[in-house]
Each structure stands twice: as structure tokens, then as C-alpha cells.
Design goal:
The chain has helices at about 5-20, 30-35, 40-55, 80-85, 100-105, 130-140, 155-165, 180-195, 210-215, 235-245, 265-275, 335-350, 355-365, 365-395, 420-425, 460-470; strands at about 55-60, 65, 115, 175-180, 200-205, 220-225, 230, 245-250, 280-285, 310-315, 330, 400, 410, 430, 435, 445-450. It is α/β, with parallel strands linked by helices and about 475 residues long. The chain folds into three domains: about 5-65, Arc Repressor Mutant, subunit A; about 100-125 and about 370-470, Aspartate Aminotransferase, domain 1, CATH 3.90.1150; about 130-365, Aspartate Aminotransferase, domain 2 (3-Layer(aba) Sandwich). A hairpin with a 7-residue loop joins β12 and β13 (about 410). It binds pyridoxal-5'-phosphate. Pyridoxal-5'-phosphate binds next to α8. In the C-terminal section; belongs to the class-I pyridoxal-phosphate-dependent aminotransferase family.
Length: about 475
């Protein structure tokens, strides 16, 4: 209720409400708005006129009001020919050419104003070293050669730093390629290792961005289930035998979305299975710097256990530093390095030198260690708040908490419609991710992923859970 609202107050309330509608979606009827906000029709029409003037609302006489769509630029032309051109032609060779980014994009879309985000793949701004990054970028931009072309494989000093960061693997800088973040490194690895049309073994569930890459490259992601100890090795052996796949992609540390850590015994099993199949293992080590303060020391990366060149290691700084610092690395042993380099150079030449220099400035300053400790603490406090709130408010769901990563994977009761829950949650003011896009095949049960790192702090994280609990069946 908004008794006695002026047109201006009401416009503010309505703006917040309408921002949760998709462009083009029909807005509630005037009568419903008058009743809900306790205002007269005159006040409502003044507020609506403001929102029309702002470009948020369009009214169609006799048909109601709508959230405005994207503004049209210039006269509409007939572009239907593109639908034929994008998919026709013998060169498509029976491989679907559409790029399905829907599951992936859903995890990246920002939450509307006033909505708590338990959603998305990057820590909240309050967990980022933005000030230190700005200072590092300023110094980097003035370094000699920062704006020229760097070596194609990356700046030597940064390659050496990554080689040391990939702890226990005894790599040197010549076995490292600087990449433009994890997503780009994964795409390079898949394109280098498997031809279009081939199967690629992936964890089930897994990161939707990986599924999007495999499908965009015309590959067939084949699910291998994950449990509390990571990949199920006996099923991996079966999947290699059944598909003859030459690539497995896995996240041994704080797997997204389940948070599982591959157990010691299974690490050996995964490497053995891949070696026997003559296959590569792409190790997506996205969460190496997201260990919580109560976590035991994390196991070394899988590439540290490998002396045969089986593992292609992917490392990224975006989660620990900032999504805007799109710098990561690919590390490998053997001739595969040349292939990786060729694919990366053909696709994107090199990672901007100024960004590479920014990383060197950042990680070389004492602020980096302080930031990593603050990040670990911030993640731990948010996780603890979400765990307590779920236990208190939603005792029937089955969350599995891990002392690392940025999310919790929550199993809902069988038969729950996870999309309906995620939709109702958004209307109640909290954004969560439904489980479906994380599965390469049929999901065994309904799930939600709650990315608590995205909240401004433990209080907001607990508030998000309270809003979610209110709509759980
Ligand atoms: C498991 C996993 N791998 C890779 C990425 C890609 O991250 P970036 O390209 O920002 O390094 C993400 C991002 O959410 C992720 O969750």
C-alpha cells in the first residue's frame, strides 16, 4: 500500500516494480495498480505519464501498458534472409550451427534493482580489489611497451608467474600461454583438442558456459556423473569406452555447481582412465583462489600428478580479482602446446599487453595477499549466513556446503518445478539459478544454485534465503 502517495513517490515504486518485467511484457492493469497502491486514478495516470516520458513504459490505447522494448533505431528492414543464410549450405555438414547461449547468459544477467542476487559467476563488488586494480592499471598503462604488441604467448614475466602459481606442477614459463580468461582458454582447448562432431566428456552437472562452448563448436557433450567426491571414475571408464572420446573436461577443485573436490583416489583413477583412452583431460581450475578460511589446504592441481602430458590446465584470475581483468592461462606439456598457441593466435592474436602488465602490477603488490585473505573471509561469512538461514527457514531442502567456491547447490524435493520456484523467487525479490542449464543431459532431480558470493554481505545473503524460503513449496 502506498496511501497518500504523490505521483512522484508512486512513480518510484512502479519503476522498481516494472524493471522486473521483460521488455515488451504486459504490465498489470490500471485497476489492479490503483487497488494495490491505494491511490486514485489521477495519481496513477500522473505516475504512468512520468514513466512513459522516461521511456520505461509504453501505453497502447485499448490494449493496456507494456514495459518498453529496446528502442528502435531507424526504419525496420526485412532481415529474414539471414535466417536462411545462417543455417543453410552444404558446408554445414549436418552440424548444427546455432549458438545456444541461453543457459549461460541466464547466469550472467544482472539482477534488477532491489532484488538480492544469489546468482551469477563473480564475487560482489565489495569483494573485489577495485581500488588496487585501478592503481595497478594506471602504473601498467605507463610501463614501456604497454600499448605495443606483446609476445604472442604472453609477457614472459607473467608466464613465469603463472608457472609458479600452478603449484607443485614443476612447470616453467615456456609451458604456459597467457589467455583472455577461463572462458576463452576453455574454448581454445576444446577447439585445439577435438574436431567438430566429436564427443567431449563433461561432468554432470557442470558449468553451463562449458556446455555452450562445446555445442557452439559442434561437439557433443557427454555427461559423466559427479558425486560428493567428484567424477565417478567407473562411469568415466564406461563413457570413454562407449564414445571413444579423446577429451574430458573437469573441475577437480570446488566443482561448479556442486562444490565437490575430487578425492585423492579418484585423481589417480581419472588420469589412468584418460591415459588408457589416449585422451586429454582439460582441468578447469577456476576456484583455486576461492578457498574459505576454514578449508583444509587444497590439493595441488591435477597437472601436478601428470608427467605424460595428459592434462591441459586452465587457470583464471577473473574470479579472484575481477571479471574485467580478463587474464588467465593455459598450461600443458608436449606438442599440444603448439596447437593451443595456434588456435589462440588465429582466434584473437594476443591478450592486450596493458592487461598483462596490470596483472603483474597487482599480484606483485602487497595488496594482493591482503585482498586474497579478505576474499576468503568474505566468502566464508556469506556461506555461513546462507547455511544458517537455510537450516532455519527451509529445513526440507538438501544443501551441500563446501569450504570453497562461491555457491551452494541445493536439491529440491522430487517433483518440484525449479523454474517455477526461480520465477516466484525473482518476483519475491531474490534471483537464483535453476539447475537445468547445468546438466548436459536429463537432470536426475530439481536443483537450485545459490551464488552467495554475489551478495553485499552476510546480512543480504540471509535476506535472500528468507525471500526464497517464502516461495519454496
Ligand atoms: C567453472 C567455471 N569455469 C570457467 C569460467 C569462466 O570464467 P572466466 O572466463 O571469467 O575466467 C567460469 C565462470 O563462471 C566458471 O564458473
Amino acid at each position: 500500500m502506498n496511501n497518500g502517495s504523490s505521483g512522484r513517490d508512486l512513480a518510484d515504486d512502479l519503476r522498481r516494480e516494472f524493471e522486473r518485467y521483460a521488455p515488451g511484457e504486459r504490465l498489470p492493469a490500471s485497476r489492479a495498480l490503483v487497488e494495490r497502491h491505494g491511490v486514485g486514478p489521477g495519481t496513477l495516470s500522473r505516475a504512468m505519464a512520468r514513466l512513459v516520458a522516461e521511456g520505461l513504459v509504453v501505453t497502447r490505447p485499448g490494449a493496456g501498458s507494456y514495459r518498453a522494448g529496446e528502442p528502435a533505431r531507424g526504419p525496420a528492414r526485412d532481415t529474414s534472409w539471414q535466417e536462411v543464410a545462417l543455417d543453410a549450405g552444404p558446408e554445414a555438414g549436418g552440424i548444427a550451427r546455432g549458438v545456444d547461449d541461453s543457459g549461460f547468459i541466464a547466469t550472467l544477467a544482472p539482477a534488477p534493482a532491489g532484488v538480492v542476487s544469489l546468482h551469477g559467476g563473480y564475487p560482489h563488488a565489495s569483494l573485489r580489489p577495485d581500488r588496487e586494480l585501478a592503481a595497478a592499471a594506471g602504473r601498467a598503462a605507463r610501463r614501456p611497451g604497454a600499448w605495443g604488441s606483446p609476445p604472442l604467448e604472453g609477457v614472459a614475466e607473467l608466464r613465469d608467474w603463472f608457472a609458479r602459481e600452478i603449484d607443485g606442477a614443476s612447470l616453467d614459463g615456456s609451458q604456459v600461454l597467457v589467455a583472455a580468461g577461463g572462458q576463452s582458454a576453455l574454448a581454445t582447448a576444446l577447439r585445439a583438442l577435438a574436431p567438430p562432431g566429436s564427443p567431449v566428456l563433461v561432468e554432470s552437472p557442470t558449468y553451463p558456459g562449458l556446455l555452450a562452448i562445446a555445442r557452439a563448436l559442434g561437439m557433443r557433450p557427454v555427461p559423466v556423473p559427479v558425486d560428493g567426491d567428484g567424477l565417478r571414475v567407473e562411469l568415466l571408464v564406461e563413457a570413454f569406452a562407449a564414445t571413444r572420446a579423446r577429451v574430458l573436461v573437469c573441475q577437480p577443485l570446488f566443482h561448479n555447481p556442486t562444490g565437490a573436490v575430487l578425492s585423492g583416489e579418484r585423481r589417480a583413477g581419472v588420469l589412468r582412465a584418460a591415459r588408457e583412452a589416449g585422451a586429454f583431460v582439460v582441468e578447469d581450475d577456476y576456484a583455486r583462489r576461492l578457498s574459505h578460511t576454514d578449508a583444509p589446504p587444497p590439493p595441488p592441481p591435477l597437472i601436478a600428478d601428470d608427467r605424460h602430458g595428459t592434462v591441459v590446465h586452465v587457470h583464471s584470475l577473473t574470479k579472484a580479482a575481477s571479471p574485467g581483468l580478463r587474464v588467465g592461462a593455459l598450461a600443458a606439456r608436449g606438442p599440444v602446446l603448439r596447437r593451443l598457441r595456434a588456435v589462440q593466435v588465429v582466434d584473437s592474436l594476443f591478450v592486450p599487453g596493458v592487461l598483462q602488465e596490470t596483472v603483474l602490477e597487482l599480484v606483485g603488490s602487497p595488496a594482493w595477499g591482503r585482498h586474497l585473505r579478505a576474499l576468503a573471509e568474505g566468502l566464508t561469512r556469506r556461506r555461513t549466513a546462507v547455511a544458517a538461514a537455510l537450516l532455519e527457514r527451509a529445513p526440507l531442502v538438501e544443501p551441500v556446503f563446501r569450504p570453497g567456491g562461491y555457491q551452494v547447490w541445493v536439491r529440491l524435493r522430487d517433483g518440484t518445478d525449479e523454474d517455477a520456484v526461480a520465477g516466484a523467487a525473482l518476483r519475491a525479490g531474490v534471483k537464483v539459478a535453476a539447475g537445468r542449464p547445468f546438466f548436459p543431459g536429463e537432470p536426475p532431480a530439481p536443483y537450485l544454485r545459490l551464488a552467495y558470493a554475489n551478495t553485499s554481505g552476510p546480512r543480504e545473503a540471509a535476506e535472500g534465503v528468507a525471500r526464497l524460503a517464502g516461495v519454496l513449496p
